[in-house]
Amino acid sequence: MKYVTLSLWMGPEIRHPMHQFVMDHDGYEASYLLRWNDMGAAVQTLLFHVDGWPVEPYRAALEHAPRVTEYALSPCPDDSFYLYVCGRPTDSDTDLIDAFTQAGLVIVSPVAYRDDGTVGLTLVGPGGTVQEAVETAPDSVSVDVREVGEYDSRRLDTGAALTDRQFEAVAAAVDCGYYRDPREGSVDDVADVLGCAPGTAAQHLRKAEARVMADLLDQHGASVA
User: Fold this and answer.
1) At residue 94, what are phi and psi to the nearest 5 degrees?
2) DSSP code of 109?
3) DSSP states of 134-184
4) Tens of pLDDT along 119-137?
5) Which DSSP string corresponds to 43-66?
6) pTM to 2 decimals?
7) Half-sphere exposure of 67 (CA within 13 A, CB side)
8) Helices 198-219 and 187-194: crossing angle, nearest 10°?
9) pLDDT tens string 146-175
10) From CA 28, how far away is CA 26, in angstroms rounded?
């Protein structure tokens, strides 16, 4: 059983307006599609986790987003929120769904709609089926194959929830010795590598660590009281 990790790019003329909102507004890093109903349905019901804050500008944009028929927002304590949304897919959405939801293929959640305009997702299935999905992606969508290999959920699931920037922060922290005992690096060192303020670097690390720890608990069936 094979997996392929893809990075998709689509132009603003077919990009969903709420993905465009994440790109255009500071404070929003990514929106993660966590769960969905039948993706071939005329009206889709989707659950997202949006890594961004504040909620109200996002809510205002949803009010004017075409094809959105219903939504609800649920704030989290870590400057993020959940989004339940119902909407009608465009023709471009349907073409993409047809390519990646064919028989014998599984999309591994989450699907990441990032602030750099890319969409990151992982497909799992027999090697030939995975290859066919990549080849049948619409011409309007640029597909970059990032990684291919034998599927192992333990390897993929934890890192999938991190944004590119959070992953870069963790990598910089490891390289500079931030996680060594005794600690050799600092948040300032991470910030220097990322080219950002120390407070921003600390926020990236804090969110990355929270996600990894939550995933670890989920994998072992544990919960936090």
Assistant:
1) -65, -40
2) E
3) HHTS-TTEEEEEEEEEE--HHHHHHHHTS-HHHHHHHHHHHHHTTTSSS--
4) 998 888 887 888 888 888 8
5) SEEEEEEEEES-HHHHHHHHHT-T
6) 0.74
7) 13
8) 100
9) 888 887 655 555 455 677 788 888 889 999
10) 6
